[in-house]
Structure formats: structure tokens, C-alpha cells
């Protein structure tokens, strides 16, 4: 069984003077010497080092109090999620699955061995709680794949304890900086080992005092700097920068969605909240972009990929739709007065939902382990490497992108007209569902266009989201009624009262009718002429 910890740490270049007095750090009552431990870690990756390229480390380590297999996934600056599995000879399948979206079918092989002598200290507060672990590590690195280079260095590692606030790291860093100790150039031991053991690599030289700090400050200043306003390419041109083309603009968007799919894969496997939904949205955004911006991308290439993305979104939906439907039914039960809850309705709903969940979770993991899925990821990589751009891709983004968004809007208008003209019942349910899908596509294309168009696209996104929510609630009501009929049948067969499920069915029917009555006003808000005129400029 895997354990999961949030690791917040920083690394520094050690100096000959050793550590300063860390008991002087505000909030630290004492420094406790924990002695020296020998650590021996073998790191695994593909021969092309795909995991290292994404800042991921996978290792088997002996020694210390956490011996075992460790997978570290980047979360933020200085922050990584570490997943630990007990020591074994073979790579645990659980961890192999969590890196599959990165490595695909490439084998994982030992690439580097790191042996460290760790001199560990605990910084504790007045109650003896560990605020941070500070270690001085003497590291010996040996390349196992792609050469036989070696490297040696000494570094300082400061890891925040569970009882401490993140600000403690800054306080410790100030004390280290005053002692002439600077941040390490690389983000991890593995990154440094790979760099320094490559064939022909030069031994690393200690950074001059203040160099790393200045670089860090420069990076922070760049992040804090004012962003260029979207939709103003003429200003970029005045500063000597090329006006972005439609192809450049769209490829940035596609790359962001593909990256999201790959990075969310481990979260979906670990059943993290909202992960399935976010991965499914990235899949749908990508497929929608292929459809919306067909003037930029060659459909003969993107249509088959779109079919595979549709398959993936549908498979992910098995789990996501269950989550949404179950939450809706519980919410409706909570709205009923207690006298109207006749029979074991909650336990019946729980049994029904759990049965669906067990099947859906297994199904989703099976999809992510399939060769069809990894093949799709390979195809998406190939798309970015050699994008099928049409001639319009070379034109300025503002000459091409707005027209694609407006075409989606015109398609939505036809769907809404059909929904309003359809008779109540099944025909209108189907028509409103088609309008919902068209609203979602228009929203996605407006989101993709926002960096190029600016505020008009942002406002359109807001209007489309409101319209999509209204149409979505109607469709959710249609699905909920089907589930309630199923629950009522199960209750009846078990000799239970089906009264409450029938009552909820009627409530959902009334809710759907109300949404249908609201559609004309919602559509009027979403199709304001001034907004569309701004897009056409």
C-alpha cells in the first residue's frame, strides 16, 4: 500500500565552513543532531530520460527511515508530491502506472546510482516538534545507462516539517545566505547527477557568492512583471516583436491541453478530487479546437485524432458522470422534508452508486493502461512535432481566429432556434442537449481565442458558460430521471416503497420545464449584438 507525503524542500551548495548556528533562526528552539546515515538510491527512467525531462524522479532507496520505492511528482516551486511503496526487488506496478503517460511503452531502466552520507539535524520548537530537517549530504553519483561517468559533491538540503509554516524556509535561507551559502543550481540530486555524469561533461564549479541569488531574483522579477494585454499585437510589433500568427497561437493552446492530459493521468489513477473532470475537459477542449479552427489545421489529419479524443472523453465520462449524478440525487434528497423520505432511500442510493463506482473505477484504470490510450498520446506528440498547418496558419491571429469563433456562435444559434421550436418532451430534450454541446464548443473556442482577441472573447466565455450551465442543468435532469426510474424499479423489486423516487422524478420534471421556459431570456443575454460586433472588428 502506498503512502503519500507533501515534500517542501530547498537545496544549497555546501561550503567548507559548514552550517551556521541554525538555533538562531526565529522560532527554532534547538538543533538536534540525528547522526550520519548511509543512503543508496538507484534512479529509474527511460533511456531518453523522459521522466527527468518533466522533473519527475523514480527511485529505489535503502537506508534511512523511509527505505523503499519513491516517486516524486512536481507540484510547485520547492514542492513535490512523494508517493512511497515498501521496498521490493521489482518496480511496483502501482508506480509504473503513475508514470505511464510519460514513458508510454518505453522500458524503465536504472540510469543513475547515488550513494550519500547524510549528516542529519532536526530543527525543533520549544515543544520538541520538528520544524525542519537539515542535512549535509556527501553524494557520489555513478551513471548506469548512457555512459559510465561519475561525480561527487556536497550539498545542504532543508526540508520543511509537518509542524512548520512555509515561511520557516525563508528564515532558514536568510541565515544560510548570511553565512555565504547559496541555492543549488539544479532542482534535484538526480538532475545534477545526470548533467555531471554525461559523456564529456565538465566537473561542476561552485557558484560565485550571490550568483544564484541574483538569478533567483531575476526570475521572480520576470514573473512579477506586467503581462502584455491580450489582443494588442500592434504593441508587440512596435517593440520589435513579431505579430503572432494563427498557427503559433493555436499550437500554444493545443500544447497546453496535451500537457494537461499527460499531467493529470497520475491524479486520475490516484482518484484525486476533480481529476477525472479536469482531464476530460482538456480532452474535450482539444477535440473542440480541431473542429473550430479547421481553417488553421488540416482536417484529414485532425479528424481521426478527434475520434480518438471522443473515445477517451466518453470512457472518462463513465466515472465523472457517476460522480455528478450521485451528487445531484443526494442533493435532491436533502431538499425533501423528513416525512417524505419513505423507506431506506439513502441506503438504496448508496448501494446503487457504490456498485456503479466499483465498475467505473476499474474501467477508467483499464483505459489508461490500454495501448489505445498510449497510442493516442504518441499521436498527439507527433502532431505537435509536425503540425498539419494550412496556409491560413501563417496569417496574423487576429485575421483568422475571430472568424472561427463566430462560426461556432452561428452554429449555436441554429441549435437554439431548433430547441425553441421543438415540442416539449423527447424532441426538445434532444434539441436542448445539442444546443448545450454547441454552447460548450463556442465557449472553448472563445477561451482559445482570448489571448489574441482579449476582452470581447472573455465576455463571450462568460455568457457561454451561463448558457451552458442552464442547458446542462436541463440535460442533468433528463439523466437524473432515468436513474430515478431505475432506482424505483430496484426498490419495488426489493419490496421497498418507491414513493420517494417517484416524487423526485416529478421534481426533476418540473425543474427541466423551468429551464426550458428560461431559455429565451438566457439566449437573449448570450447573443447581445454589441458583444458580437466587438468580435467582428
List keywords for this structure.
537 residues, alpha+beta, eight-stranded antiparallel beta barrel, 8 strands
What does this structure look like?
It contains 17 helices and 8 strands. It is of the alpha+beta class and 537 residues long. The chain has an 8-stranded antiparallel β-barrel. Helix 8 (246-269) runs antiparallel to helix 9 and helix 9 (275-292) packs across helix 14. The radius of gyration is 28 Å and the shape is globular. The N and C termini lie far apart (58 Å).
Global outline: globular
Sheet with the most strands: spatial strand order: 1-5-4-3-2-6-7-8
N-to-C SSE string, H for helix and E for strand? EEHEEEHHEEEHHHHHHHHHHHHHH
Mean pLDDT: 89
> Portion of residues in helices?
55-70%
What gyration radius follows from the Cα positions, in whole Å? 28 Å
Total strands: 8
**Separation, N- and C-terminal Cα atoms:** 58 Å
Structural class: alpha+beta
How many helices in DSSP terms?
17
Q: How much strand content do the residues show?
A: 15-25%
Question: Residue ranges: pLDDT <50 for 5 or more in a row?
Answer: 207-240
* Main beta sheet: 8 strands, antiparallel, barrel
Helix/strand layout:
Blueprint: E1 3-13, E2 30-45, H1 50-53, E3 57-62, E4 68-76, E5 79-85, H2 93-98, H3 100-103, E6 109-124, E7 130-143, E8 150-160, H4 167-178, H5 189-196, H6 211-224, H7 233-238, H8 246-269, H9 275-292, H10 299-335, H11 345-368, H12 371-385, H13 397-421, H14 426-453, H15 455-493, H16 499-526, H17 529-536
Antiparallel strand pairs: 1-5, 1-8, 2-3, 2-6, 3-4, 4-5, 6-7, 7-8
Helix pairs in contact: 8-9, 8-12, 8-13, 9-10, 9-14, 10-11, 10-12, 13-14, 14-15, 15-16, 15-17
Amino acid at each position: 500500500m502506498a503512502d503519500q507525503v507533501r515534500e517542501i524542500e530547498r537545496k544549497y551548495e555546501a561550503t567548507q565552513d559548514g552550517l551556521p548556528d541554525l538555533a538562531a533562526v526565529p522560532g527554532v528552539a534547538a538543533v538536534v543532531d540525528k547522526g550520519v546515515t548511509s543512503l543508496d538510491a538507484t534512479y529509474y527512467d527511460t533511456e531518453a530520460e523522459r521522466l527527468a525531462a518533466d522533473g519527475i524522479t523514480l527511485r529505489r532507496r535503502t537506508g534511512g527511515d523511509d527505505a523503499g520505492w519513491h516517486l516524486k511528482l512536481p507540484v510547485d516551486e520547492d514542492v513535490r508530491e512523494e508517493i512511497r511503496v515498501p521496498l521490493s526487488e521489482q518496480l511496483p506496478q502501482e508506480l509504473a502506472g503513475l508514470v505511464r503517460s510519460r514513458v508510454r511503452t518505453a522500458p524503465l531502466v536504472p540510469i543513475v546510482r547515488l550513494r550519500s552520507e547524510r549528516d542529519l539535524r532536526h530543527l525543533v520548537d520549544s515543544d520538541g516538534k520538528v520544524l525542519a530537517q537539515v542535512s549535509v549530504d556527501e553524494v557520489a553519483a555513478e551513471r548506469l545507462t548512457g555512459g559510465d561517468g561519475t561525480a561527487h559533491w556536497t550539498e545542504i538540503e532543508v526540508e520543511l516539517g509537518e509542524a512548520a509554516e512555509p515561511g520557516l524556509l525563508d528564515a532558514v535561507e536568510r541565515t544560510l545566505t548570511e553565512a555565504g551559502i547559496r541555492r543549488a543550481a539544479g532542482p534535484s540530486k538526480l538532475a545534477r547527477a545526470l548533467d555531471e555524469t554525461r559523456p564529456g561533461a565538465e566537473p561542476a564549479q561552485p557558484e560565485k557568492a550571490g550568483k544564484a541569488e541574483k538569478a533567483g531574483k531575476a526570475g521572480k522579477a520576470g514573473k512579477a512583471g506586467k503581462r502584455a494585454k491580450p489582443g494588442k499585437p500592434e504593441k508587440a510589433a512596435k517593440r520589435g516583436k513579431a505579430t503572432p500568427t494563427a498557427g503559433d497561437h493555436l499550437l500554444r493552446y493545443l500544447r497546453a491541453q496535451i500537457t494537461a492530459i499527460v499531467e493529470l493521468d497520475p491524479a486520475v489513477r490516484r482518484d484525486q478530487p476533480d481529476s477525472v473532470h479536469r482531464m476530460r475537459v482538456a480532452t474535450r477542449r482539444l477535440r473542440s479546437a480541431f473542429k473550430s479552427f479547421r481553417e488553421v489545421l488540416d482536417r484529414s489529419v485532425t479528424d481521426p485524432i478527434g475520434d480518438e479524443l471522443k473515445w477517451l472523453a466518453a470512457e472518462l465520462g463513465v466515472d465523472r458522470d457517476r460522480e455528478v449524478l450521485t451528487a445531484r440525487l443526494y442533493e435532491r434528497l436533502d431538499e425533501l422534508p423528513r416525512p417524505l423520505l419513505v423507506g431506506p432511500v439513502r441506503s438504496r442510493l448508496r448501494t446503487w452508486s457504490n456498485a456503479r463506482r466499483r465498475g467505473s473505477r476499474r474501467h477508467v484504470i483499464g483505459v489508461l493502461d490500454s495501448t489505445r490510450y498510449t497510442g493516442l498520446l504518441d499521436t498527439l506528440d507527433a502532431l505537435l512535432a509536425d503540425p498539419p498547418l494550412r496556409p491560413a496558419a501563417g496569417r496574423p491571429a487576429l485575421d483568422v481566429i475571430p472568424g472561427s469563433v463566430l462560426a461556432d456562435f452561428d452554429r449555436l444559434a441554429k441549435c437554439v432556434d431548433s430547441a425553441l421550436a421543438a415540442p416539449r418532451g423527447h424532441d426538445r430534450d434532444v434539441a436542448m442537449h445539442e444546443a448545450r454541446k454547441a454552447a460548450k464548443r463556442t465557449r472553448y473556442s472563445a477561451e482559445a481565442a482570448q489571448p489574441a482577441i482579449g476582452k470581447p472573447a472573455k465576455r463571450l466565455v462568460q455568457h457561454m458558460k451561463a448558457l451552458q450551465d442552464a442547458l446542462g442543468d436541463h440535460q442533468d435532469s433528463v439523466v437524473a430521471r432515468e436513474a430515478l426510474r431505475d432506482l424505483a424499479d430496484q426498490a419495488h423489486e426489493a419490496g421497498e416503497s418507491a414513493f420517494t423516487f417517484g416524487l423526485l422524478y416529478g421534481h426533476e420534471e418540473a425543474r427541466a420545464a423551468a429551464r426550458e421556459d428560461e431559455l429565451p431570456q438566457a439566449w437573449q443575454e448570450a447573443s447581445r449584438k454589441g458583444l458580437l460586433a466587438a468580435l467582428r472588428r
